[in-house]
Amino acid sequence: MKYWGYLVAKLLAGLGILAGLLVVMRWLLPAPQAYVTYNELNPIGHDLTHTVAYFVYFLICTGVVALIFMDQKYRCRTCARKLMMPVMRGSWDSMLRLGRPHTEYICPYGHGTLKVPELQITGKEPIDWAEHQDMWKELEELHSGKR
Ligand SMILES: [Zn+2]
Questions:
Q1: CA–CA distance, 121 with 125 (Å, rounded to integer)
Q2: Average pLDDT rounded to a whole number, residues 74-94
Q3: Domain boundaries in the chain?
Q4: What is the 106 CA–ligand 1 centroid distance (Å)?
């Protein structure tokens, strides 16, 4: 739940920043001189300065949303902290013996492991999140000799 809440908070913050940028951009853009008599006419598509400015604004919006989702991909699904310590697993040379190459990231608080495949043979491979069990419980079982 914290993971999705953090994503929504980032999207709302990005929306606020982009709305502020839109207000500043509209304030800075001069009114199109050729269409002063046509107040109802939308300057986008009719005035080059406005069209280019809105196109660049659209690219900035797309980049901000892409950055938000790229950042969210490498966050812990439990605590929403940034995943750390990337480890290369598998091998390009001997895939059958050591497995397919992938990178594993872990949560600094031990909530889980994210497995990101490096090899995309049959299209885009989904990333795999594996939640860890409670490590204290596991240690208690080892200590008491149940294992
Ligand atoms: Zn975590």
A1: 8
A2: 91
A3: 2-73, 84-144
A4: 8
HSE on the CB side for 141, CA within 13 Å?
8
The model's pTM is 0.76
Of 89, 94, 143, nearest to 113 (Cα)? Answer: 89
Centre of ligand 1 from the C-alpha of residue 74, in Å: 11
Say how many Å lie between the CA of residue 82 and the centre of ligand 1.
Answer: 8
In this prediction, residue 40 carries a pLDDT of 66
Distance 139 CA to ligand 1 centre (A): 19
Q: What is the 3-state secondary structure (H, E, C) of 60-106?
A: HHHHHHHHHHHHHHCECCCCCCECEEEEEECCCCCHHHHCCCEEEEE
Distance 108 CA to ligand 1 centre (A): 6
131-147, pLDDT tens digit by residue?
Answer: 988 777 777 887 887 55
Residue with tokens 């304030």: 27
Ligand 1 centre distance from Cα of residue 3 (Å): 10
